[in-house]
Each structure stands twice: as structure tokens, then as C-alpha cells.
Amino acid sequence: MNIGIDKIGFFAPHLYVETKDLAVKRGVEPEKFTIGIGQEKMAVAPTSQDAVTLAANAALSILTEEDKQAIDYVIFATESGVDHSKAASTYIHNLLGLPSYTRAVEMKQACYSATAGLQAARGHIALNPDSKVLVLASDISRYGLNTAGEITQGAGAVAFVVAKEPKILSIEPTSVYKTEEAMDFWRPLYSETAFVQGKFSVDQYINFFLDLLERYNEKTNRSLKDFDALLFHLPYTKMGLKALRKSVEAAELEDQERLLNGFDISKYYNAIVGNIYTGSLYLSLVSLLENSQTLEAGDRIGLFSYGSGSVGEFFTGVLVPGYEQYLNTDHHTAMLKNRTALTVEEYEQIFEEKLPVGEKDYTVDTTKDPAPFVFTGVTEHMRQYKRQA
């Protein structure tokens, strides 16, 4: 029985800032951000959007009523959780109107946890072949104004359905994974922004990829020739490119060109949305599927998932015949086209709009947010959400 991704979609807030404008405001050459980091636009989440609403909006765009009735497991992967105890997946379950007899959990391991969710979903489908699993990867990346990490911010969510005999990508059974305790990136409970050791983080990421790729090749007797594309977790697009270049240094020119060209296509959405943590790898997958002109059914795609701290995994998927018919390209294109560009001053104002802490009641202005699902505030310390479209 084949198990894999049956549907996939993403959502980004309706606001963004041009990285070249941010560079000018910060007194650096725009090319440092657009080429050196590889980011063109950075999605900005208003206070009416959080990890829950981003995920709900992503899922809404791909689910039919038939899908909803078949889903009996919701896995929410995030490092932007809204509660220390209550899983964000329970809000999603309610907002989407999923069946009562559903398992709903939240997973955390930095940017890796959506892959943990995918693998858990595969196991569930193997035991329950007629069910479907909804996996959500949703985050808002914040490093602070005028910080080294500011350019690697972003906001968004990816939602995908895991099922038997998938219509898009069949996940192959062999994967390799690794854990190594490391303080390359972390966010203590008392901090609203993350801490990162930049060079160490890049080194850890690249070393994990090279190690896992070699281990995978040893287990499967495959090489770079067997991959039609390699995808990466992309906190910023240049990071994945560095890892890919390291892996193809000794490869034949044909393999280098194929994999580098594929990477250029896969990074497109990430470059104009920004860092969405748990969803970054899967946003890259959507970008490749929706923008490539050369992919064919049967092509093998390698995927490198990484979460600081550190956990990494390399696994593969094979494209299913007719996968193009089940993509949501037109919806995504329209969503990105209809976004509103902010000035740097407007972006800074939104960034500094902090929600009240410890207050049992407050209201959030949602009148300017066109998204279907919005966060409306808190009543008696309970978060409130609504569907407005």
C-alpha cells in the first residue's frame, strides 16, 4: 500500500515588506538581502493572525467535505504555540468542523516537527487505511527589529492530507534521521524572540544534511543520479543552496545542473514569503510542484528536514501520475498577487503591536484582515477565533 501526500496547500498573510526596502532602511546594500541571504519579500502577520488562524486558512483552501469526514487525526506542528497546555489542533478541529471522533495533538521540535507529523501520519494510515490525517505546519518567525536575524523572518502555514494511494506524492519507506543536542537556535519560555548562534547553526545544518544523505545512500545504494530534485528546510534560501552546493561538488555536471535548477524553482515561494519554520520544507515542495516545467510522474524527490537543537531527517517521495491535477496553483498565485506591500515604518509598527499579557479580556481589530479565519481576542483568558468569509 502506498501512503503519502494526497493534497497540499499553503497560506500567507496579506501583508509583506520588500527586503530591498528593509535593507535601505537598515543601511546595508539591498543585494546583501536579496542575493546574499536570498530573500525578496517577507510576510508580515497582523495581530489578527496567529499560528492557529494561519493553519486553518491553509487547510480551508484544500479540504472538501468528503476529506473532512475521512479525517480522524490532526497533527499540528509549530514552534509558535498559543498555549503551554492546550494543543492548537483542538482549535483547528473546531474551526474546520471535523468529526468528533478525531485524535488531535500538537508537536514541537523546532522546524522539524512537521516531518515527525508526516511520519506519524504514515503509521496511522498503515493501521487505518480508510482514514486520512491532516498535518499542519504553522509559524510566525520573529527575531526583533534591527537584529541580525531580522531578514529571516516571515509568517505562514502549510497544510497537507496524508492518505493511502495518494494523488500527489508517495512517500518511500526508507528514511534516515539523527539527533544531536546543540544550542544553535532556541527560544526560552521567557522570550518572545529566538536566540541563534549564526555560524554554528549553518554548520550544524550543512553537516546534518551531508551526513544523512551519505547514510541514506549507503542504506539504499542510491546516488545523486537517482534524484530528480533535492528539497531543503529553508529558513532563508541561501542556506539550502550552501548545503546543496556542498553535496554536488564532486558530482557530474549533468547532475549538478539538474539539482541546482530544481533548487532555483523550489525556493521561489520561500523567497517571497520568508521563514515559516515548520512549514518551510513543505512550502519548498509546493513551489517545486507548482512551478516546475520538467517534473514527471515517477520522478524521485529527496527531502531534508531539519530542526535546530538538533533533529534532522532525509526521506524521499515519488511523484504520482496525474499529480498536476490536484495542485492548488491558481489559488496560491492569486493569494500572493493580492498581498499588500508595507513601508518599513508600517512593518515596524505592526511588529511592535504587542497583545496584552495577563489580561483576561481584550479585543483585536480584524476589520482590515481579509483572511477567512481570524483571531479576535481573549474572553475570560480564553482565545477567540471566528470565520468571517
From TrEMBL:
Transmembrane residues, as ranges?
none
Checking InterPro entries in the record gives: HMG_CoA_synt_C_dom, HMG_CoA_synth_N, HMG_CoA_synthase_prok, Thiolase-like
Active site as annotated: E79 (proton donor/acceptor), C111 (acyl-thioester intermediate), H233 (proton donor/acceptor)
Against Pfam families, the record matches this protein to: HMG_CoA_synt_C, HMG_CoA_synt_N
Q: Name one GO biological process term.
A: acetyl-CoA metabolic process
UniProt-recorded Gene Ontology molecular function terms:
hydroxymethylglutaryl-CoA synthase activity
Please spell out the taxonomic lineage of the organism that makes this protein.
Bacteria, Bacillati, Bacillota, Bacilli, Bacillales
Annotated Hydroxymethylglutaryl-coenzyme A synthase N-terminal domain residues? 2-163
Provide the alphabetized UniProt keywords: Transferase
Q: Which CDD domains match?
A: init_cond_enzymes (cd00827)
Provide the protein name: Hydroxymethylglutaryl-CoA synthase
Family the entry assigns: Belongs to the thiolase-like superfamily. HMG-CoA synthase family.
PANTHER family in UniProt:
3-HYDROXY-3-METHYLGLUTARYL COENZYME A SYNTHASE, HYDROXYMETHYLGLUTARYL-COA SYNTHASE
Q: Which residues bind (3S)-3-hydroxy-3-methylglutaryl-CoA?
A: Y143, K242, N275
Q: Where is the Hydroxymethylglutaryl-coenzyme A synthase C-terminal domain?
A: 180-245, 267-354
